[in-house]
């Protein structure tokens, strides 16, 4: 059982929904980013998605693109991202961390080397947005053999014919992308999300977490109420990008967490 599996078991036992946050590793610099990441669990975050900076983030909107650029300019890399996870694990051995990004940096680093070091660092799972199920031999299956969850995205265009393929070899949870398009592009609506979550639930026992387009505590509550949890990314990244202190960012995160946990 991974930390992700354990966290969902804990939440189910408590009758709670999951609150998941995305932040870009190294944005705007290593020390500030690490301070934010270390503070997320106390702010109410159940699972941390840690973005891996990349030069060509095709699925991301301006907010996360700029966050990646800031991180890269500050010297962030895959190796330093793994170091950040290790530094986090010095103070927190239980909160799950999911590395989210693109395959190119992992491929360049070397898959076997990456998986060995990711496991040692304390990563629990990964979301690699540009690797479809047809490429599972590249990373998904080796990751699962290494004891890491491989989390897949489902979208409004994932029809019933495609869904079983998407769910094959998926573990940890399913990330449902609530809107078509890039991150931060529109607002998620619970009325639109609910039937899609039920459709996916009919095909899997995995938790369904909904992300994209969630920016307020009320929105987080509404989305979490129709799913197993909610993910907030761009709204938090915007707070960091605006120059807010780590304490101010974490206060904003806490308001979102309170909203999701009230569902």
Structure characterization notes:
The protein is of the alpha/beta class and 263 residues long. It contains twelve helices and nine strands. Helix 3 crosses helix 11 and helix 4 runs parallel beside helix 6. The longest helix is centred in the C-terminal third of the chain and has 16 residues. It is globular and about 45 Å long.
List the helices and strands and how they pair.
Elements: H1 3-14, E1 18-24, H2 30-39, E2 47-51, H3 62-73, H4 78-89, E3 97-101, H5 103-109, H6 111-121, E4 125-128, H7 140-145, E5 149-150, E6 152-154, H8 163-167, E7 174-177, H9 190-201, E8 208-211, H10 217-225, E9 229-232, H11 234-241, H12 246-261
Parallel strand pairs: 1-2, 1-9, 2-3, 3-4, 4-5, 6-7, 7-8, 8-9
Helix pairs in contact: 2-12, 3-11, 4-6, 10-12
């Amino acid at each position: 059982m991974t930390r992700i599996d354990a966290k969902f078991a804990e939440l189910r036992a408590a009758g709670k929904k999951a609150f998941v946050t995305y932040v870009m590793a190294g944005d705007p610099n290593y020390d500030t980013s690490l301070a934010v990441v270390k503070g997320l669990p106390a702010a109410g975050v159940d699972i941390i998605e840690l973005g891996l900076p990349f030069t060509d983030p095709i699925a991301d909107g301006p907010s996360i693109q700029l966050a990646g650029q800031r991180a890269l300019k500050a010297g962030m890399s895959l190796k330093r991202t793994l170091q950040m996870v290790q530094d986090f694990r010095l103070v927190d051995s239980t909160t799950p961390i999911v590395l989210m990004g693109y395959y190119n940096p992992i491929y360049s680093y070397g898959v076997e080397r990456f998986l060995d070091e990711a496991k040692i660092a304390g990563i629990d799972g990964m979301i690699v947005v540009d690797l479809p199920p047809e490429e599972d031999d590249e990373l998904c299956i080796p990751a699962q053999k290494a004891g890491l969850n491989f989390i897949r995205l489902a979208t409004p265009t994932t029809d019933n014919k495609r869904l079983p393929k998407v769910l094959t070899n998926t573990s940890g949870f399913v990330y449902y992308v609530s809107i078509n398009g890039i991150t931060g592009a529109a607002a998620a609506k619970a009325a639109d999300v609910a039937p899609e979550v039920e459709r996916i639930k009919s095909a899997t026992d995995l938790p369904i977490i909904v992300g994209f387009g969630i920016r307020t505590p009320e929105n987080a509550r509404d989305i979490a109420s129709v799913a197993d949890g909610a993910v907030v990314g761009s709204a938090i990244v915007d707070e960091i990008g605006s120059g807010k202190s780590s304490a101010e960012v974490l206060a904003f995160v806490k308001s979102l967490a309170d909203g999701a946990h009230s569902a």
